[in-house]
Design brief:
Oligomer: single chain
Number of strands: 0
Strand content: under 5%
Helix content: 55-70%
């Protein structure tokens, strides 16, 4: 989960100012957490408390209303009813990493990922994106190799993961759909050599950079089990105490450790 949040913050300044290189400063004065982080923390909170996903997301969203939500999603947050709005947007995937870390079998991960998605993103592609992300995190956490992760995700979800970052980058454009974000984010992880390299590759695609790096970062942290200490230290300074409390409690309860 921390890897996803760090990816969100690193990618935040390039969302509307895309770059197509892996050589960039990891942190800029304007780096900040976005809706990706708020909703990731909300999902973690819901798991910890046994709370309803929608209620947790709405509560956190209302406390942090200026995090850069999409128009339809902020409308959903502020609405009292819990009705989904049939979205296929990548918001369902960006918040799914805690599910891959908290549950101990693949079918439970898929079930919970679907539940976390369908409260707002009940389109089949929205549900699929959340499930693919959570399952990739779960498989990485379980120590599966990249080849096994690639085949499992392709086999279950039909995503084309037989591409490389170098092949994708020249033609890739800003895309807020799950189907146009999740495969590319997973490929950035598959092509990487460590956590930082994975996040740099995700951002370098030049698309919805904070969400790409959030999804990639969550998988990469689960796989490499190591995040550079400078990244951890900087990210912690950019998060509210409420978020740090949820993150640290989640990591303690689910025995999530990474070297830093």
């Amino acid at each position: 989960m921390f890897g996803a949040i760090a990816g969100d913050i690193i990618g935040s300044v390039y969302e509307y100012d895309p770059i197509r290189t892996e050589d960039f400063p990891l942190f800029d004065a304007d780096c900040r957490f976005t809706d990706d982080t708020v909703m990731t923390v909300a999902v973690a909170h819901a798991i910890l408390e046994g709370a309803d996903y929608a209620a947790a997301m709405k509560a956190f969203g209302r406390r942090y209303p200026d995090a850069g939500y999409g128009g339809a999603f902020i409308g959903w947050i502020l609405e009292d009813e819990l009705r989904p709005y049939h979205s296929w947007g990548n918001g369902s995937a960006m918040r799914a990493s805690p599910i891959g870390l908290a549950f101990d079998d693949a079918e439970r991960v898929l079930l919970e990922a679907g539940r976390s998605a369908e409260v707002s993103h009940d389109h089949p592609e929205g549900i699929k994106g959340a499930q693919a992300t959570a399952l990739a995190v779960f498989l990485a956490r379980q120590g599966k190799g990249k080849g096994a992760i690639r085949q499992e995700i392709m086999g279950r979800f039909g995503y084309d993961l037989n591409r490389t970052v170098e092949e994708i980058r020249p033609r890739y454009r800003f895309d807020v759909s799950c189907q146009g974000t999740v495969p590319e984010a997973i490929i950035a992880f598959l092509d990487s050599r460590d956590y930082e390299d994975a996040v740099r590759k995700a951002v370098s695609l030049g698309g919805d950079s904070d969400t790409l790096a959030c999804i990639t970062g969550g998988i990469a942290a689960a796989y490499y089990k190591e995040i550079p200490p400078a990244i951890v230290a900087t990210v912690r300074t950019l998060l509210p105490e409420e978020f740090l409390t949820v993150i640290d409690r989640f990591c303690n309860i689910y025995n999530i450790r990474f070297n830093h």
